[in-house]
Hints:
Layout: H1 2-21, H2 29-43, H3 46-67, H4 71-81, H5 84-107, H6 113-130, H7 136-152, H8 168-183
Amino acid sequence: MRFLIIFFMAFFVSHHADAYSYSAQGKEPLIEGRNAIINSLKEGNKADVAKYFTLMRDDVEFLGNKYDKTLLRDFEIGIAAMDVTVISTGIHRLFAAEIQRRLKMASRNLDKYQTAKVMVVKSIRFFDMIAPELEKPVAHAVKQGLNECLNAIGKPGVFGAGQMPADPKAYDQALKNVVKAFAQ
């Protein structure tokens, strides 16, 4: 009997933990595309740079139309010229737009803690990819704003203990801070 109880407890706990760990992980085509483009640039392989950009093109176009009107054009110019600086700047702008998109999705889901948290955590994942390439004051300001977003989504608590409700005003201000920091 003890064996069955231990077995079911282990089964329940492991699946319960998986339910919260898988959602913030997973493949991110923009991150994978960025890495492939960077590696192809290092190798001087223009064909691969163009190929990987083509795989990301729809996302670049969508995010550009929504957040950064000249993003697609600038990316295409950089790819055609194999200009590392223009392409790197394009990736930073692309990730800034993706971070903004995800943070806005989180703001619409502040009443759903897990959904909001996944959006903010994924935003942090995107930021972490480009943070070392940003100027230190910009990186610091963005990181601070992302941490403020994470704090503003609240906490569900455990059986009500430690529960903190979401703070929409603080979240909106933190989102504005992130956008402002990227605009520097």
